[in-house]
Design a protein that fits this description.
The mean pLDDT is 93. The chain has helices at 17-31, 35-43, 46-58, 78-86, 100-111, 151-161, 181-201, 204-216, 220-229, and strands spanning 7-10, 13-16, 67-72, 91-97, 119-123, 136-142, 162-173, 233-240, 245-251. By secondary structure, the chain is α/β, with parallel strands linked by helices. The chain has nine helices and nine strands. The strands form two sheets. It has a seven-stranded mixed beta sheet with strand order 5-4-3-6-7-9-8, with helices on both faces. The structure holds S-adenosylmethionine (SAM). S-adenosylmethionine binds next to helix 1 and helix 4.
Length: 253
């Protein structure tokens, strides 16, 4: 790496900031086809409960009030489908993701879903969202923000596209803080997950990156401060499953 280059980390590896997105894109292009299956296997289905908590925070209206969600780094559309299912007939979701392979897997899911007409997939970067100011009632991002090279830019963009009174919710892995279990979780993360990744997707390195990137992500209090820096108000967070996951939220007021 040249001195003077702005740098960041790709997992534990220091890389020029300008190179990170390409490396991240390689990871998700490689695992896209088996991504949903791997989520179930490596979290023993727990990601469903974490995502349900996110949907409860987003709280789409059950009646016929129009409601527009933007799910950033939405990948295969898991959050979008859940929000549309939970909401009324006028709840719609836009999935934006930078990775064409993840979006392709999402569109294939939509083709066999009953609510496909209410979910759309758009290729775009969380750091420069291709949407006008104040165009969504809610913005979510699940297990996506730690992959974005310039996190503060992505938070600024989430704030920009939200309507006044709209809610932002972000689900992300955090650090297990239960003494005794933390060591076990560490062993599981660094040994079992990459091995499972190798068997299911043929790519252990992709899952090693995912585990390392979790360790490098800011602690919940620090991340809450970053959300506030982007202009969100009433920022709060909730720790789930002994610290494995944190759910942050804030409002555009
Ligand atoms: C771990 S997946 C999460 C997918 C989905 N939100 C879920 O919970 O199942 C992370 C996603 O972030 C996307 N991503 C990474 N960098 C991005 C960026 N700069 N802008 C938009 N999406 C990005 C990846 O392509 C990938 O689909």
């Amino acid at each position: 790496m040249r001195t003077g280059d702005e740098h960041t980390y790709f997992g534990f590896k220091p890389v020029p900031l300008a190179d990170k997105q390409g490396l991240v894109d390689g990871v998700f292009a490689s695992v896209a086809r088996r991504y949903d299956l791997m989520n179930d296997l490596m979290s023993a289905g727990l990601h469903r409960a974490w995502k349900d908590a996110l949907v409860t925070t987003i709280n789409p209206p059950r009646g016929n009030r129009p409601f527009a969600l933007l799910d950033v780094a939405g990948g295969t559309g898991d959050i979008a489908f859940r929000v549309v299912d939970a909401g009324g007939a006028e709840t719609r979701a836009t999935v934006v993701d930078i990775n064409a392979e993840m979006l392709k897997a999402g569109r294939e899911r939509a083709a066999v879903s009953s609510c496909s007409d209410r979910v759309i997939f758009v290729e775009g970067n969380a750091e420069a969202l291709p949407f006008p100011d104040r165009s969504f009632d809610a913005v979510s991002i699940a297990f996506g923000i730690r992959n974005v090279p310039r996190i503060q830019e992505a938070l600024n963009e989430a704030h920009r596209v939200l309507k006044i009174g709209g809610r932002f919710a972000c689900l992300e892995f955090s650090s297990m803080d239960v003494p005794g279990l933390d060591r076990l979780y560490e062993l599981y993360s660094f040994n079992v997950i990459p091995a499972l990744g190798r068997v299911v997707t043929g790519d252990a390195e992709a899952y090693r990156y995912l585990v390392e990137s979790i360790r490098r992500f800011p602690k919940p209090r620090t991340f809450a401060d970053m959300i506030e820096t982007s202009g969100f108000r009433r920022v709060s967070f909730q720790i789930m499953t002994g610290g494995i996951v944190a759910l942050h939220s804030g409002w555009r007021l």
